[in-house]
Amino acid sequence: GAYLIHGYTASGVVFAMLAAVELCGREPDPRWVFGWLAVALFIDATDGPLARAARVKSRLPAIDGRTIDDLVDYLTFTFLPLLLVWRMGWLPGASTGGEGMDLSLAWIAPAMIASLFGFANQDAKDERNGMFQGFPSYWNLFAYYAGFWATQGAAWLSAALLVVFAALTVLPVRFVYPNLAPAPWRVPLLAGAGVWALLLVGLLPWYPEAPAWLMWGSLAYPAAYFALSAWLDCRQPRPVERETP
Phi and psi for 89 in degrees, rounded to 5? Predict the structure, then answer.
């Protein structure tokens, strides 16, 4: 059973590969890229509860499931989504038709580097309080909205958020971990995430075109998530830092 759950976690890399294959095509369709990344996101959202229920850590201590999870997550949450944003030219400074210097890479690189520090942080997940340390590299969701904003002439918004979120990744701020959120927030967070996910999937066939009111309205859930994270971060005690040997 423990091996099966680890295999389930590792299967996310298959969908990362499928997303990469589409991304490397002559004319990549972002809808397929996000479709494959959505499957990987579903695996990531469900493997943790399965692993805890099966007590995988105690039954198979020689294999670190978190390492597998982090490797797949960096590909599907950070590297591929940000590569897609660059490939599609959704940022200021992007070269058109392969002419001129592509300055959009300057927006992407800091986020990729900051996320490496985030994934390397052994205290990134405060499971007792249901919080992440630093912005939890939700670049896949950021990339989804970057496509909408680019079509509406708001690529500057994507660039600004890249800088802000990259900084928040390494700053001592905390964000809610929905699967482990403290009571009474877990059920509303997960229910809201489910409705929000259905909305984003429903918009996928027309992506990156969408009614402006619907796109901006869909940001209500992320706004509530950030507000709740800030409130809980201020209220909850900080975890004890690890002692330096």
Answer: 70, 40
